[in-house]
DNA sequence: AGGAATTGTTGACACGCCGCCAACAGGGCG
DNA sequence: CGCCCTGTTGGCGGCGTGTCAACAATTCCT
């Protein structure tokens, strides 16, 4: 355990060093609350002078922002090839995919969703919101409603809200163990079907037409359409 | 704006002083993230020496704990008298009640749910969990499933998860304005009905019996029963 | 190869915040 | 009035954070 097992002062390329520090920060912030992690801790973990953290990330809060961004971005690898079938089939596949991803990245995912953010910081909220947006889009293409334009804003809002249910339900499974995977699957499938088959049509239907129906009062016949779009 | 508009050093009873400081802390922590609020700020806001905060609350984190407790407790005033009718009627009334409460305490409620907690602190998580528990119980009695014992743990878990949906949906309404009240009402009513009428029966049904069905394999006939229990 | 230029990296300084504690003073009691 | 009880204060020591000039590991040039 001599001092210079690795030369005590090695020069790395900016990206490499930045990435190394960020990785350590992710580990620490994922295990302890914001205020309990000092930049000194991060520096020690990375075997680096504390000042270097400020050099690369500016302030502690900016570092935390990067950490949150990484945490919420990792799980969203990409929407795998999704089967073409009727709505029920696609919803089922989507939920299965979600549960796979969530259980695979279990630890980091739990850390991410639990890290709602140190109180409510505007920037953190922005990052989280963007992540929700991406997640909602994934669900839309997976279910085959990506090209719907009728009440798109409301539809997306409902899907975002559904994301809240998915998160809470998955936590009941992975964190509490109060539900098993099959039960979670059943719950998420049934509720998503309800939203898409009942709630959304009702919103776009007669009630919606009386409120602001301008672009089109067409029924939601597009629900059966499977989007051929892939995700970046 | 003279210094001694109020005698600069007034003696209050412990409860009064504690309450005053706590109120100021709630206001400040409700407006800015944890790390951005110093005990000095709270002290200045309360017109009090900083040391007094430590005297009453011990540490800054303990003060924050109290703040979170207040925030999540305020909205849960009590479950009003709920009408006895069929399931759909009671669900409808419950959702209406929820939306009333949420829109009434709008600001404090938003602050509370957004304040997920500074990262993930164990104690903060405990307070939040207890609040979820209480909320879930409220829903159970309101819907008339308070006395169900069959798969009680799973049922409660599903209701807790539904709380995540309710929160997210209400935020889409109050914070984003992406949904209006009627749409939120529709969504929450339909999903809760789905969970109670479809998901829960399916869980307690044949699939459940094969897993651990011991106490009773009886169907969910208790769903129609209205609980006569009131809440504290 | 040797020296200069480049730039990743360090250590220390100043400032602010937090927890603690001895001293101070408001208000009731004999 | 003077005493005691206790709410309240102010300052001390320690720690965490942001900044900056100096340092040294590589690279490039001659």
From TrEMBL, chains A, B:
DNA-binding feature ranges: 38-57
UniProt keyword terms in alphabetical order: DNA-binding, Transcription, Transcription regulation
Residue ranges of every copy of the HTH tetR-type domain listed in the record: 15-75
UniProt-listed InterPro entries: DesT_TetR_C (IPR054129), Homeodomain-like_sf (IPR009057), HTH-type_TetR-like_transc_reg (IPR050109), HTH_TetR (IPR001647)
Gene3D superfamilies, A to Z: Tetracycline Repressor, domain 2
Record bears the keyword Protein transport: no
Keyword NAD set for record: no
Origin superkingdom: Bacteria
PANTHER family from the UniProt entry: HTH-TYPE TRANSCRIPTIONAL REGULATOR BETI (PTHR30055:SF234), HTH-TYPE TRANSCRIPTIONAL REGULATOR RUTR (PTHR30055)
The name this protein goes by in its record: TetR/AcrR family transcriptional regulator
């Amino acid at each position: 355990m001599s001092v210079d097992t690795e030369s005590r002062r090695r020069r790395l390329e900016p990206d490499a060093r930045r990435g190394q520090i960020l990785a350590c920060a992710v580990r620490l912030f994922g295990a302890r609350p914001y205020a309990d992690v000092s930049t000194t801790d991060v520096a020690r973990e990375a075997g680096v002078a504390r000042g270097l953290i400020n050099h690369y990330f500016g302030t502690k809060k900016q570092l935390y922002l990067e950490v949150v961004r990484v945490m919420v971005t990792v799980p969203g690898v990409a929407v795998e090839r999704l089967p073409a079938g009727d709505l029920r089939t696609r919803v089922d596949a989507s939920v299965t995919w979600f549960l796979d991803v969530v259980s695979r990245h279990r630890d980091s995912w739990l850390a991410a969703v639990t890290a709602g953010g140190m109180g409510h910081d505007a920037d953190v909220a922005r990052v989280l919101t963007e992540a929700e947006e991406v997640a909602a889009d994934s669900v839309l293409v997976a279910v085959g409603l990506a090209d719907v334009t009728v009440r798109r804003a409301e539809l997306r809002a409902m899907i975002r809200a559904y994301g809240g249910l998915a998160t809470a339900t998955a936590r009941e499974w992975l964190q509490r163990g109060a539900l098993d995977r099959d039960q979670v699957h059943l719950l998420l499938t049934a509720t998503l079907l309800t939203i898409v088959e009942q709630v959304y049509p009702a919103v776009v239907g007669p009630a919606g037409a009386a409120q602001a129906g301008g672009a089109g009062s067409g029924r939601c016949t597009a629900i059966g359409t499977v989007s051929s779009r892939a995700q970046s």
